[in-house]
Amino acid sequence: MGIVSEEEAIDELQKLINQVEGPLKKTFEKVHQGYLRENLSRFLKARDWNVSKAHTMLLDCLRWRVDSEIDSILSKPIVPSELYRDVRDSQLIGMSGYTREGLPVFAIGVGLSTFDKASVHYYVQSHIQINEYRDRVLLPSMSKKNGRPITTCVKVLDMTGLKLSALSQIKLVTIISTIDDLNYPEKTNTYYVVNAPYIFSACWKVVKPLLHERTTKKVHVLSGSGKDELLKIMDYTSLPHFCRRGSSGSSHHTQSVDCFSVDHPFHQQLYSYVKHHYETQGQGEPAKQGSFHVGFPEPGADGVQIVKTIESEMHNLENRNGLGKPVDDRKVSP
User: Where are the annotated segments for Disordered (predicted)?
Assistant: First the structure.
């Protein structure tokens, strides 16, 4: 008998996943944090509500978590603190606040991230720690505060500084995005793209047709810094620092704190949380330098095609640009 509703699909997947035991069951509890049906729904959405495919995806995710010891990653600080500062300076991500509906607002400096101050393993470790802190600390806390399940976030992508040289970072970005696609599906409600230069517009034009409609509907390219549009869903205090310029009405506000900085309250709280959990495990020795190695999943055929398309388009832009004005200096509107 075919599945005729989303609720029935969730019921079917729940029956299947109830059969898992041992380490898989334990790590799944870390995933759903008491919001079982909402999290089963995420995997079903990622597989177009095909129960069998969603079941396979979820089992693969749970095995990855067990094999890579993801449950303990929030007790593995990146040390020394100077190395963590280097990671933060070159992998620009932070949390600036919450939407009026209670969703965490994550800011990502796509254009200015250099990923050149640490090994790939530290960047992956840091990214997963932020994911796990979001899912195991922030979202459950906001769910309780708001009296309803809050299981997603919004992301504001700052394209300032995006250049053709970003081609060298595609491999690392692909690793991180593949980890998210396979193991943290449907965790982002909406992507807002701001400060987009011409190079982004050109790449988005060729990549958009390759993406699932479910994904493209989430992406909103905003004009300029996107401030006016973002203020419709969040207060000024939750705007990422790079969105607070431009438009009227900001002169009476104080200068915002850079939410990418290691000194921002979000990163201080996250780092303190990880250090505390390391220390409370009864470790006799100080944490030693050494990245937390995680298995890197192979990107699917669609992911490979998207990367090749981006590489091809960026090479075309480079060839067309010649000795003219740098294409990454030209701003575009949505």
Answer: 315-334
